[in-house]
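Re: that backbone. Tokens:
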């Protein structure tokens, strides 16, 4: 059985959101599973000496125009949140808290959080706000809030982020297919062709 496609993403990334709406459908056309892996992109930005696009004046205006254009092209909802980039620690920790026992539920939570943040424009910087979204999936809000503060869950997110850096991940979304890396939502078409042809 082929290895799962690795999908690295940051909840504060709108391009990660756009990729999240497509990645599983593409993979399923080729009989592949997708391993969703939220990371803290700040670590990669630090390693590369970069900053979030929303914080770079000369790039910010284009970035805002581009994500709106991409959302229109895909015909998906996009509402800019009040804080960009948001602090996504709580969202990412909540995912990893659920993942080992119930990876399907963790993925459903990731989709719901992306939809709430980028589709509806909600700020999810706090554990309480993440828990509000999770409650819609019948995830215990109190348990989630406690888990987000658990040192073991904090360590898990750091470890996953460190592993992503070791894999060469430096942006969101970042997809690895059988060892071949693809960076950016605009590379999903190439990723699909790679799956279809076995590479080139």
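Recovered sequence:
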């Amino acid at each position: 059985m082929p290895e799962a496609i690795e999908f690295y993403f940051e909840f504060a990334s709108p391009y990660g959101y756009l990729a999240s709406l497509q990645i599983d459908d593409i993979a399923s056309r080729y009989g592949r599973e997708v391993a969703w892996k939220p990371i803290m992109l700040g670590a990669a930005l630090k390693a590369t000496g970069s900053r979030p696009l929303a914080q770079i004046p000369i790039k910010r205006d284009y970035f805002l125009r581009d994500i709106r254009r991409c959302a229109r092209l895909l015909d998906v909802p996009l509402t800019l949140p009040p804080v960009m980039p948001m602090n996504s620690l709580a969202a990412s920790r909540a995912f990893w808290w659920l993942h080992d026992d119930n990876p399907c539920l963790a993925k459903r939570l990731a989709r719901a959080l992306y939809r709430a943040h980028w589709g509806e424009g909600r700020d999810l910087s706090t554990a309480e706000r993440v828990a509000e979204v999770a409650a819609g999936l019948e995830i215990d809000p109190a348990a989630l809030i406690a888990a987000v503060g658990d040192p073991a869950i904090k360590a898990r997110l750091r470890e996953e982020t460190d592993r992503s850096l070791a894999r060469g991940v430096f942006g969101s979304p970042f997809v690895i297919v059988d060892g071949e890396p693809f960076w950016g939502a605009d590379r999903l078409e190439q990723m699909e062709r790679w799956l279809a042809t076995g590479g080139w």
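Residues 5-197 form a domain with the Glutaredoxin fold (CATH 3.40.30.10). The chain has a mean pLDDT of 96.
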